[in-house]
Structure prediction request, 289 residues.
Amino acid sequence: MKLIKLVSIWNPKGGQGKSTLAINLAASSVELGLKPLVICQDPQGTSLLYYKSGNLPFEVIDRVPTNRPEADIVIFDHQASDWEVPNNNLIVMPLKPVRDQYATYIDAYRRAELMGKRIITVVTDGQEHRASEKETMDYLKNKGAYAIAASGVFSRAASEYMTIFDPKMNKAYKIKERRIEINKILVNILIENEETKNND
Amino acid sequence: MTNNWIDEENARASELAKTGTTTNNNAPLLVKTTKKPAPIRHIKSIYIQDSYSLAFDKLVFEQKIAKGKKAPQLMEEAIELLLKKYGSL
Prediction:
């Protein structure tokens, strides 16, 4: 039986980029020739809205399927305010590099850490020209986090409910860099037994 | 590192993690309600007499008012009894 990679995108804080990361990681895996499935577990249904637009080259469903899905990677897009640590062993936690956002992230991180989860931290929407944000980004990157810089490509893609991997985005400013950032996270997800550093 | 708040937040989070609570433990927490998905069912057409059909419709209506079982569940219950009676289950 084919192994399916299960990933939870989780952070109880809203607006950190969970849905954006979920659909873009799925799109990145399509580029690699994999078949992803996104399970939207958010009543806001953000990733479902993307799917309903018809621009996604993969499926987004609204609940956990009863039968084993035909997929290589299943990405769970969790909702904000969800303090329950996901069951999946691998958790991707996006956060913005600002103190009040970090406070919630680190509370949730500690919970997941206590349960022995493998956690991949992704700093989103970081503005390098802001000293405080840059320092926080650097600190987290030193701890093994990935970073996705603040970029207009995400809002541009969002305006048409598509991912940044959509061919329509090919000529967008610095699209290559943003795609590489997402691809790097996906590669880490796909690597078995990868140990991520702790945030101590 | 001029962002010395990170150490403060890390220490605070570590202490909080020991208690297993949230920063505001009095706030309402999200409660997940996961609906059990319906089993896969198939259409089975059979001919029955009017009196049974009407009686079944009445039963379904009464169960609907009482927020009880729905038609497929009631029919499955009846079939289960039949299968037990004839030793097929």
Notes: The mean pLDDT of chain B is 90. Helices of chain B lie at 5-19, 50-65, 71-85. Residues 42-89 of chain B form one domain.
